[in-house]
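Hello forum,

I keep getting stuck at the same step: I have a sequence, I want structure tokens, and every attempt I make locally crashes halfway through. Rather than fight my setup again tonight, could one of you with a working pipeline run this one for me? It's a single chain of 160 residues.
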Amino acid sequence: MRFFEDIKVGQRREIGSFTFTAEGIKTFAAQFDPQPFHLDEEAGRKSLFGGLAASGWHVGSVCMKLLVADGQRQASEAAARGEKVAVWGPSPGFRELRWIRPVLAGDTISFASEIESMRTSASRPQWGILEARNTGTNQKGEPVFSMLSTAFVPRRNTGA
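Reply #2:
Ran it on my machine without issues. Output:
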């Protein structure tokens, strides 16, 4: 993971891709979003989606999984180089969640994260606060998912 000082507004990371299978869509939906168009192909075809559709929560969960995996990869690489590893703090939340287009069985979504804003925390100067736009794009190049997330990022040099 990177320190606050190593990050710049406009930086973009490709964090990975994921293919949504019919089985995976149904398994997630059965536990977390049991609506007919997420559970049954025929119900999906007859719906506004026109096919078995992944829950938006499923799409967001995959994005989170890939963000965490990317952070773990960055931390491992930094440790292998002998660098101090930044341990990020919690997220105070997200805004502007958008499920732009349906994600259907067989779609492969590529996820990315781009830094939109950064500031030092007024109450905790050892931390920076950043906002990142996390997006998903299908195999046709169409946007399907977007959210603006906030995270606490440790500062390298705070004089503390």
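Strands lie at 12-19, 93-99, 108-120, 127-137, 143-154. If your local run keeps crashing, start a new thread with the error log.
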